[in-house]
Amino acid sequence: xxxxxxxxxxxxxxxxxxxxxxxxxxxxxxxxxxxxxxxxxxxxxxxxxxxxxxxxxxxxxxxxxxxxxxxxxxxxxxxxxxxxxxxxxxxxxxxxxxxxxxxxxxxxxxxxxxxxxxxxxxxxxxxxxxxxxxxxxxxxx
Amino acid sequence: xxxxxxxxxxxxxxxxxxxxxxxxxxxxxxxxxxxxxxxxxxxxxxxxxxxxxxxxxxxxxxxxxxxxxxxxxxxxxxxxxxxxxxxxxxxxxxxxxxxxxxxxxxxxxxxxxxxxxxxxxxxxxxxxxxxxxxxxxxxxxxxxxxxxxxxxxxxxxxxxxxxxxxxxxxxxxxxxxxxxxxxxxxxxxxxxxxxxxxxxxxxxxxxxxxxxxxxxxxxxxxxxxxxxxxxxxxxxxxxxxxxxxxxxxxxxxxxxxxxxxxxxxxxxxxxxxxxxxxxxxxxxxxxxxxxxxxxxxxxxxxxxxxxxxxxxxxxxxxxxxxxxxxxxxxxxxxxxx
Lengths: 141, 337
Description:
The complex is a heterodimer of chains A (141) and B (337).
Chain A: H1 5-17, H2 25-66, H3 76-82, H4 90-114, H5 117-133
Chain B: H1 4-17, E1 21-28, E2 36-44, E3 47-55, H2 66-76, E4 86-90, E5 100-104, H3 124-140, H4 160-175, H5 181-192, E6 202-204, E7 213-215, E8 221-224, E9 231-233, H6 236-242, E10 254-255, E11 259-260, H7 261-272, H8 278-305, H9 311-336
Antiparallel strand pairs in B: 1-2, 2-3, 3-5, 4-5, 6-9, 7-8, 10-11
Helix pairs in contact in B: 3-7, 4-8, 5-8, 5-9, 6-8, 8-9
């Protein structure tokens, strides 16, 4: 996912290392510090859950692929459905997620072209689940 | 303490006005990342002028044209819309190094944070009248008679939707760093279900929403801000954006934290003389979320590629993008039902 925790923390570091400009004034500087604090809090929560969320989303996409036989002439979706996330590092999980999402986009295009309402509803339900898995709480929970 | 911007402004305005200028109380204003915004007083010949300067940033959420923003303000200032008076447009940057414009400052107002739970109570209903009434008056205006027509292309009525969708889907295509199946599904739906032609061509503010205006705390808007995405198009575009759940504030069904949806439509229709066509509006509501996601995706890219300068870009490209995905998924679920 982009940005990932590494990106966020890199930005937090840059922000904290950058001296405020004399033109900014106290209110802006404090507001910026507040935003950096919020990002750090969200990053702390994300570091706890990033792997779990990626695994859950990847599993949900693979489960859909397992039932997509009619749209899987070359067997690529069935093969993806059998994959497991062996490397549990966040970069590896994100890379697998990117592959699965690209396949999901292709599958949905085929389903739309075939005007298959039932499968379309399944995919749209999956979108709701994916968005829910990735939901962030402002308090960092 | 005087910084380099104060000195540059004093030099520039002194040259522009032909007399010495002192800059006092300059301070940056938090908020939008598409322009650096500063408030200041210019003291010239003993007179104190409260002003705002909006300067192009090194990187921003969106590529916007400061000339169209300036001319949008010029189009509506003093025309029944609380648009601040634009004063000076400098396209070359001069002493400030990047393009900027100066406008009059309106003091004494408040803005609402997108995260405030009920920012307008107890004046929400009255403010809703002003908010959707103002938007209706913007929609009603004939753009061909306004300064903004000098710089904004006028699309055909049946092409307003396509021009906007082409633009924002291209932003996603260009800036996406991780595959985004939800917004891509929404884009395909929009292309395959075009809305009816626009009822008329209007000035579209482009970012008309809760939080982008100053209010007096008693239910009256005193300044409509952030016109940087102004263009000509279908007036329903602004209405769809204003109603996006991202700016909802409350869970009680009110839109923009002010009034119920039907009431918003009634106020807008009365002020604009136009109708909210339900079929067309579904399209513009979904489009609003696509446009939002394009902006957040773009901000995530700018954050990384621009050297992690602005924390707001990170927040938009991260938290806000995920919230927008939820909204998009809810739209798609309704359409698929």
